[in-house]
Design a protein that fits this description.
Elements lengths: L3 H14 L28 E7 L8 E9 L5 H6 L8 E3 L9 E7 L4 E11 L5 E7 L22 E3 L21 E3 L6 E3 L4 E6 L4 E4 L1 H7 L6 E9 L5 E6 L6 E8 L2 E8 L4 E3 L2 E2 L9 E7 L3 E6 L2 E2 L5 E2 L11 E3 L9 E10 L6 H9 L5 E3 L3 E2 L1
Antiparallel strand pairs: 1-6, 1-24, 1-25, 2-5, 3-6, 4-5, 7-23, 8-11, 9-10, 10-23, 11-22, 12-18, 12-23, 13-14, 13-22, 14-15, 15-16, 15-17, 18-19, 19-20, 19-21
Length: about 375
């Protein structure tokens, strides 16, 4: 005779083992990559996280644009993006909020290019994450002037020097009037530069200019400013790299090679130039250098390759007086034609940058960020 309790236990155990809810082997199921993650736009198949490193930043900044060198992106980016990279898009760290970018140059055959991204705040104490999206074969060009103005970094003027050499150089900001007209430039004067293309000046009569009315209207940082560019001199004889509102009464801003010195000169309108100098005896022809000049309302500073030069800062005792003169690239009103290349010239109406980070990001972008493994929907 079988005891009733073992029979009851057997029935319960059999029902449990044969239950449809757990019949068969117990397995672990992995969800597809990204399926539980927010996605900015489902038309874009792929993305990577780009982390801008706080360890490279000494001063927390707002309203900033970062350069991403597209050769640093994974091979799967180049094999899945459009050949013109028009389907490239960016989001903030939340993975959904679109942020503007400016695609300066892309060569899909050789997987190289440069893209500027408005990242806004950059902290010296915490890394900044953004996401790059791609993989949409029918997307249109996503580049936006808002990278530099509007909702972006609010520059007065940004010139990539990427237009045809004998045509006007378009500012990357949205004000069409601040194109730089070509004067005696030739088609061959657009060359491969520090970042994308650059303009090549022959030292005799070639220059670019923003007409005086447009310069006065759009390029007047009367109280504070930052200006900078890359230059590569073919010789170090007298020559003006760029200058704003320079006239015979010493108004405005000049950045030039003069008497074996590289110097920004700041005019107070009283026939006085305040000069900050770096001897050019230590510089070499055919080498790209990055110059930054800042004015905080009382003193000027000058940086060469992100390092403040020895006689900077310089205090200006007069008041600023901007004359009705063009903005010139490659000369000043009285001449002093520059012989060499100029790339990435820009001006902002505030002391806008951490000079060391700005130089490093533009000189060796990959040292200022890391890029994660690709994610797919």
């Amino acid at each position: 005779m079988i005891h009733p309790r073992p029979l009851a236990l057997f029935a319960i155990l059999s029902a449990f083992l044969l239950s449809p809810a757990i019949a068969g082997p117990i397995i672990s199921v992995s969800m597809p990559s990204g399926s539980a993650e927010p996605w900015m736009d489902t038309d874009y198949d792929r993305r990577c996280k780009i982390t801008i490193l706080s360890s490279q930043i000494t001063t927390t900044m707002s309203n900033q644009v970062a350069l991403i060198e597209m050769a640093d992106l994974p091979a799967t980016y180049h094999s899945n993006t459009r050949g013109d990279a028009f389907d490239t898009r960016f989001s903030s760290a939340d993975k959904t909020t679109a942020i503007p970018h400016d695609l300066e140059y892309y060569d899909g055959a050789n997987d190289i290019g440069w893209v500027w991204v408005f990242v806004d705040d950059l902290s010296s104490s915490a890394d900044t994450d953004i996401f790059i999206y791609y993989g949409h074969s029918t997307a249109t060009d996503g580049s936006s002037e808002d990278t530099w103005d509007g909702t972006g970094a609010d520059y007065l003027g940004v010139w990539h020097m990427g237009d045809a050499g004998d045509s006007a150089q378009t500012s990357a900001t949205g004000v069409a009037a601040i194109e730089a007209d070509a004067n005696n430039m030739e088609s061959g004067d657009r060359i491969i530069g520090k970042i994308g293309y650059a303009m090549d000046f022959d030292g005799s009569n070639e220059y670019l200019s923003v007409p005086s009315g447009d310069a006065s209207t759009y390029l007047r940082p009367d109280t504070t400013f930052t200006s900078h560019c890359w230059f590569r001199a073919d010789d170090f004889t007298d020559g003006t790299i760029y200058g704003l509102s320079m006239n015979s009464t010493s108004s405005g801003l000049g950045n030039w090679l003069y008497g074996s010195q590289l110097r920004p000169s700041l005019g107070n309108g009283g026939n006085v130039w305040t000069n900050i100098t770096e001897p050019t005896s230590g510089l070499s022809t055919g080498i790209w250098y990055h110059v930054i000049t800042t004015w905080d309302g009382s003193s000027a500073k000058f940086y060469l390759d992100g390092v403040e030069v020895t006689d900077s800062p310089e205090t200006e005792t007069g008041s600023w007086s901007w004359a009705s003169q063009p903005w010139y690239f490659g000369r000043r009103p009285s001449g002093d034609y520059y012989h060499g290349q100029i790339d990435e010239t820009r001006i902002h109406d505030s002391v806008h940058v951490d000079p060391a980070w700005l130089h490093q990001n533009m000189d060796d972008p990959g040292s200022t960020y890391t890029i994660s493994t690709e994610e797919t929907q």
